[in-house]
């Protein structure tokens, strides 16, 4: 069975060699991210996903914050050089998307539907994961490379303070994106018999 969707998914890879050579308009990228997240499903249509799209120096500031906070916890100078090089690769991109969960909405649902209360935090994670996957694939369709990073909660307070973001938003991931300067390597898969079962 042919699937255009799966052909796009094959383009969605973790691209670490990114650059600023993106010809798409910033507003078009923002609108792509916005529409993609709006069309992504969430449990109870809770719409708990929040996103901030940053470009240029604002995007670089995210990675300045990451570097400064990691410097506080990495004592080994030699090891920190590797960390700096990794962060520099993210800073080299065209922009960064910050993904958040609107935590009060999760708590509101827990109170409104006590029978399912234990599930709403998990469902919110599923919602943001789906949104990230969808945005990542939508960017790949446009020839824009990205990867998903997780420096939260180490950077949470500084990010919210720097960009004047609501305290109740919980930072879940950071997605640096940009032009694809080098392709991803080959992708390896588990043995299918280990991963899948067909029961008919």
Task: Throw out a few tags for this protein.
oxidoreductase; Nitroreductase; Frm2/Hbn1; five-stranded antiparallel sheet; single chain; NADH Oxidase; alpha+beta; Nitroreductase domain-containing protein; oxidoreductase activity
Can you give me a brief rundown of this structure?
This protein is of the alpha+beta class and 200 residues long. It has helices at 4-11, 26-38, 56-73, 77-91, 103-112, 120-141, 156-163, 192-195; strands at residues 18-19, 49-55, 95-102, 144-146, 169-180. It contains 8 helices and 5 strands; from the N terminus they run H-E-H-E-H-H-E-H-H-E-H-E-H.
Rounded mean pLDDT is 97
Number of helical regions: 8
What gyration radius follows from the Cα positions, in whole Å? 18 Å
- Taken together, the total number of domains comes to 1
Tell me about the largest β-sheet: 5 strands, antiparallel
| Helix content class | 40-55%
Would you tell me which CATH topology applies? NADH Oxidase
Q: In total, how many beta strands? A: 5
Q: SSE order, as H and E? A: HEHEHHEHHEHEH
Task: State the CATH superfamily name.
Answer: NADH Oxidase
Poorly predicted tracts of residues: none
Shape: globular
| Gross CATH architecture | 3-Layer(aba) Sandwich
Structural class: alpha+beta
State the separation between the terminal residues, measured CA to CA. Answer: 18 Å
- Oligomerization state of this entry? single chain
Tell me what portion of residues adopts beta-strand conformation. Answer: 15-25%
Text of the CATH class:
Alpha Beta
Keywords: Cytoplasm, Oxidoreductase
Domain Nitroreductase: 10-178
Pfam family, one: Nitroreductase
Protein name: Nitroreductase domain-containing protein
């Amino acid at each position: 069975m042919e699937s255009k969707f799966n052909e796009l998914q094959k383009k969605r890879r973790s691209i670490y060699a990114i650059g600023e050579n993106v010809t798409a308009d910033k507003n078009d990228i923002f609108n792509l991210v916005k529409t993609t997240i709006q069309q992504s499903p969430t449990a109870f249509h809770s719409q708990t996903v929040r996103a901030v799209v940053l470009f240029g120096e604002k995007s670089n500031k995210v990675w300045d914050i990451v570097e400064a906070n990691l410097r506080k916890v990495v004592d080994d100078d030699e090891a920190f050089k590797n960390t700096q090089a990794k962060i520099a690769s993210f800073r080299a991109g065209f922009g960064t998307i910050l993904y958040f969960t609107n935590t009060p909405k999760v708590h509101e649902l827990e109170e409104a539907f006590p029978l399912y209360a234990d599930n709403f935090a998990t469902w919110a994670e599923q919602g943001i994961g789906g949104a990230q996957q969808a945005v990542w694939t939508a960017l790949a369709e446009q020839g824009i490379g990205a990867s998903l990073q997780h420096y939260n909660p180490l950077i949470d307070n500084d990010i919210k303070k720097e960009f004047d973001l609501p305290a109740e938003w919980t930072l879940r991931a950071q997605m640096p994106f940009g032009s694809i300067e080098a392709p991803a390597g080959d992708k390896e898969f588990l043995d299918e018999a280990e991963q899948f079962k067909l029961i008919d």
